[in-house]
Design brief:
heterotrimer; A mainly alpha (434); B mainly alpha (337); C alpha/beta (237); A: 434 residues; mainly alpha; ABC transporter involved in vitamin B12 uptake, BtuC; 2 domains; C: 237 residues; alpha/beta; six-stranded mixed beta sheet; four-stranded antiparallel beta sheet; 10 helices; 38% helix; 24% strand; globular
Chain lengths: 434, 337, 237
């Protein structure tokens, strides 16, 4: 059973890396890396579902992650009563009109016979629908955003417990995936890649601009969290006592405790998802998915509706990414649409999955944690490396300054190199598909 | 009558000229993408950063020339530096092909693998460019800024609306025409060009006819390097150079190539203009033009902007989706699905 | 018997690492002759031709052209040696014009090939008419003519055709065979695999009936047409 032993050994190695980080750079740092590593592992798992099972090339992962983040705001933030009163219903009505326009066009495309009448009807419907939508929608948005823009200026959420936002994030992402999948699946993989990239850009553009939804680039801060606040812990007598008993300063202990709590929550989610993914892998459904991936023509000949299966996987993988996105925003405590950079972060997740081992769930998880660790560590390591190289140079050397400045940019380049090298020399990754 | 002319001038100034220049830049960019797709058979995600690299090389040589006092009068010095930039880019893409892509080609790997690898190349290139030239905005356009400045125009015509025709815009259009003409002559009239089209059409038969695949690949990369450098430099002259922008241009460029029909050079050009004009017209605030053209009673009060400029990419993407849904082979029937 | 111009001698082999498809199969073409390979489906006809052309792993036996052993050469090298090959499918550049197709056919030639092109046009007049039309827009029979014309542009010493009349209507088939005879009259030996056995044997100087990768019957076209065994098995009596 050397395969299993190898897997265990690799994960043990990862643990050693984290412990080492804790010892060298402090436990807070190590826990930060761990938590974000867990989230990355889940995203990597989601992408692995799409690529490893079905060979789908999704470059728009960031969009689904962002939708998960949006879900936390929509679920957990308190509703802004005044905004709702001022224009909430009108906004919803406007959205409904917009949706009706699109649905109407789709129905026309399907039900009417191809030809000039249909084209004219669709264009007319689009124009009328668009202007109606703007007429209703713009007014509502204006009213909502006028309510206390500095603090709110948006509709707020449902005020529900934030843990609920995690599955809701998954659902939201799944919905978007359904729409994209319906349009873009069944096309060549490069087309799917570009289509998903486009959708991610649109989702993030919407989040950045539609202030009434989530305050746009003004960001939503103070998102409720499922674990205690550090300040509260520091003021709780029982906690301070226990910390003293362990020989820790209460402030330090509170930060560690909070991060550990997150870590535990995230690990639970990860384990659940991993278990589900593994069961799926070994189920007849999983075998069928991989058979389709390996020989689509044969599968179709046997009567399998390939596009429908691809849609299922696409939705599931995206939902997983949505859950991770919600978790990430919860960890941050704020929604900052400006930080979602579609191509860059998506790329990182792809590196994670490929290095870890595409087609293998454990590989995806390992890759997620390892590459995230590397991503965080490359900057300080790179900086010290460059400082070492340039230590011989004059203090005011322009080259030295330039090199030191650029150390920060080296992360992505390193990741690019890793991807190319791994794909070339070790394409099956650390934990290969069985 | 005056109103109509004013409206026309505003339309030309804010919509037609910028869209044409942007369209030309996209077209040349899309030509590179479509050639790689047609002949090397994969979507090269690294194309945007190849453009950035080419522009960077041109900028560096431009600075060197400027420091030596070389100039081209009212044209930007960058034009002199362009051949050097192209040479540097050519060396780069040939190197990348030899070290990275050739392996997968020999193995007849699935195209999607090449796309993933090109993503890796994209980020390495991105890092290299930022490392060499930094992330800040670089403006390297010297020479006369305007062919016609808004003020001169108003003086000449007496209209209240000014028409500004920047040198960079004029340069873009002229260069684009020349580049396209040369490319089409090459593809249709020369033996090598025809062999490339044959290779793109039917690889097995081309090999059987004795066409050397390595040579075709090399010539393709050389042309792509030239196209990428030219497109990037024109864009940089017109707007400004910032490594990040070229990453963002990837989506409209791919949209242009796909809308026109991947693999069809004519399609790439058409697609470039379709995307450019759509982006500009849909995000333009039509209030100004409508104020001139509409009768008093119908004058708009709002900006009359269909979509805010932040949604520029949404426009390219929406057009792309529509085309993929209804006509996946694109306008000019390239290779499809 | 003098050495035939082209001979695939006792060939045994298969695709890649797969099992042997051909067993000790011999195909030969003499100068100025039309040789035809016929047989039931799956008999290995196309395989035999591909073996002669070098697209197959010949594990024992040899292929000789004009006395020279070419068994180890790649297909491209054999084209340079003077073999012309017209595949069954995907045998023209559909997006290029008829004339460009012919130009590509002559790609390996460095000399002026306009004379050859005129020859091809006189053999296939319809191609001259449509010289500037995209090859993909032509009818099935016309496309086959483009394909054969393309192969003739290298002035090959032997022309090999893989099922030239596949998927073509009977009238067009007759016309194609007429053209093939015209080509043979210019002196080029022709090796042809054909599904339409009867018509093919009628124009054949030499016929090879293959069954399950082996030579079953060999003789002149007339002999085979008259042979009761051959007629019964798949000429329909």
């Amino acid at each position: 059973m050397t395969n299993n032993m190898r897997t265990v050994a690799l994960f043990a190695g990862m643990a050693v890396l984290l412990i080492g980080t804790g010892m060298v750079q402090g436990w807070n740092t190590a826990l930060l890396v761990l938590n974000m590593g867990l989230i990355s592992a889940i995203m990597s798992l989601g992408v692995n579902l799409q690529w490893g099972f079905a060979g789908l090339f999704n470059v728009g992962v960031m969009g689904f992650v962002a939708l998960g983040g949006l879900a936390t705001v929509l679920v957990a933030m308190a509703p802004v009563g005044e905004a709702w009163a001022a224009g909430g219903l009108r906004v919803l009505a406007g959205l409904a009109l917009g949706a009706a326009t699109i649905v109407g066009m789709v129905l026309m495309a399907k039900r009417m016979a191809a030809g000039r009448t249909r084209t004219i009807a669709m264009i007319a419907w689009l124009i009328v629908g668009f202007f109606l939508y703007r007429a209703v929608f713009d007014g509502g948005v204006g009213a909502v955003e006028a309510i206390d823009p500095a603090a709110t200026g948006y509709l707020g959420g449902l005020g529900l417990p934030v843990l609920l936002a995690w599955p809701v994030g998954g659902v939201l992402a799944a919905g978007a995936a359904w729409i994209i999948g319906k349009t873009a699946l069944g096309l060549r993989s490069d087309y799917l890649a570009i289509a998903t990239l486009g959708i991610a850009e649109i989702v993030i553009a919407v989040m950045k601009n539609e202030d009434w939804l989530a305050r746009g680039v003004k960001n939503v801060i103070g998102i409720p969290r499922p674990v205690p606040y550090e300040v509260d812990l520091q003021q709780s007598e029982s906690f301070v006592e226990r910390a003293a008993g362990l020989g820790m300063d209460p402030t330090y202990a509170s930060t560690i405790f909070v991060k550990l709590s997150y870590g535990v929550l995230f690990t639970i989610v990860l384990v659940i998802l991993l278990w589900m993914a593994q069961s799926a892998l070994h189920s007849p459904w999983g075998r069928m998915m991989r058979a389709i991936r390996d020989n689509e023509t044969a599968a179709e000949a046997m009567g399998k509706d390939v596009t429908r299966r691809h849609l299922q996987i696409f939705i599931l993988g995206s939902a997983v990414c949505g859950i991770a996105g919600a978790m990430m925003t919860t960890l941050d405590g704020q929604l900052t649409p400006g930080t979602y950079q579609p191509l860059r972060f998506t790329f990182l997740i792809w590196v994670m999955m490929i290095v870890g081992g595409s087609g293998n769930n454990f590989g995806a998880v390992l890759g997620g944690m390892l590459i995230w660790w590397l991503w965080v560590m490359v900057e300080p390591m790179g900086l010290s490396f460059i400082q070492f190289i340039t230590s011989g140079m004059a203090e005011d050397s322009g080259l030295r300054a330039h090199l030191l400045d650029s150390a920060a940019h080296m992360r992505l380049m390193t990741m690019g190199l890793i991807l190319i090298l791994v794909l070339r020399f070790s394409p099956r990754g650390l934990i290969p598909e069985k | 009558m005056i109103d109509f002319l004013n409206g026309l001038v505003a339309l030309t100034n804010f919509v037609i000229i910028p869209a044409t220049a942007y369209g030309a830049q996209l077209a040349i960019g899309a030509l590179g993408v479509t050639l790689i797709y047609g002949i090397l058979r994969f979507s090269n995600f690294a194309h945007g950063d190849t453009m950035a690299f080419g522009t960077m090389a041109t900028i560096l040589v431009t600075w060197w020339f400027q420091s030596m006092g070389l100039s081209l009068g009212f044209l930007p010095t960058a034009l002199l530096a362009l051949p050097f930039g192209i040479a540097a880019t050519a060396a780069l893409v040939l190197f990348t092909d030899k070290t990275v892509y050739q392996f997968y080609r020999r193995q007849k790997a699935k195209p999607v693998i090449l796309v993933i690898v090109s993503m890796g190349v994209m980020f390495v290139l991105n890092g290299v460019v930022r490392f060499i030239i930094g992330v800040d905005d670089q403006n390297f356009n010297n020479g006369e800024r305007f062919i016609i400045a808004a003020r001169e125009f108003k003086q000449m015509t007496g209209l209240s609306e000014g028409l500004a025709f920047k040198t960079s815009q004029g340069l873009t259009i002229v260069t684009a025409v020349i580049v396209v003409a040369v490319l089409f002559w090459f593809l249709n009239k020369t033996r090598t060009g025809k062999s490339m089209r044959a290779f793109s059409d039917n690889e097995d038969l081309a090999l059987l006819s004795g066409i050397n695949p390595d040579r075709v690949v090399m010539v393709t990369w050389l042309i792509v390097a030239a196209l990428a450098t030219v497109a990037g430099t024109l864009y940089g002259l017109d707007k400004s150079f910032k490594p990040f922008t070229y990453l963002q241009l990837l989506l409209p460029i791919f949209a242009s190539a796909i809308v026109g029909g991947l693999g069809s050079p004519l399609g790439a050009i058409a697609g470039g203009f379709v995307i450019a004009f759509s982006e500009v017209t849909i995000t333009y605030a039509w209030k100004k033009v409508l104020t001139y053209w509409a009768p008093e009673s119908l004058e708009p009060s709002g900006l009359m902007q269909l979509l805010s400029t932040d949604y520029k990419f949404a426009v390219s993407f929406a057009i792309l989706v529509v085309v993929l849904l209804f006509k996946p082979t694109g306008l000019f029937k390239g290779k499809s699905v | 018997m003098s050495e035939p111009f082209l001979i695939g001698d006792s060939m045994t082999g298969g695709y890649g690492k797969g099992p042997d498809i051909l067993h000790d199969c011999t195909i030969a073409v003499n100068p100025g002759e039309i040789a035809v390979i016929v047989g039931p489906n799956g008999a290995g006809k196309s395989t035999a031709m591909k073996a002669v052309f070098g697209m197959l792993d010949v594990r024992s036996g040899a292929v000789r052209l004009g006395g020279e052993d070419i068994t180890k050469l790649t297909p491209q090298e054999r084209v340079v040696k003077g073999m012309g090959f017209v595949p069954q499918t995907s045998n023209i550049f559909t997006s290029m014009t008829v004339e460009e197709n012919l130009e590509m056919g002559a790609f390996i030639r460095r000399d002026d090939f306009r004379g050859t092109m005129e020859q091809v046009y006189s053999l296939f007049p319809i191609l001259k008419e449509k010289r500037n039309q995209a090859a993909g827009e032509l009818s099935g029979g016309q496309r086959q003519q483009v394909a054969v014309g393309r192969a003739l542009m290298t002035q090959p010493k032997v022309l090999m055709l893989d099922e030239p009349t596949a998927g073509v209507s009977p009238i067009v088939m007759d016309e194609l065979f007429d053209r093939i005879i015209e080509v043979a009259r210019t002196g080029i030996p022709i090796l042809m695999v054909e599904q339409n056995a009867r018509q093919a044997l009628e124009i054949a100087d030499r016929g090879y009936v293959l069954v399950q990768g082996r030579n079953a019957h060999t003789g002149t076209g007339k002999e085979l047409l008259a042979d009761p065994e051959v007629r019964q098995s798949f000429l329909g009596g």
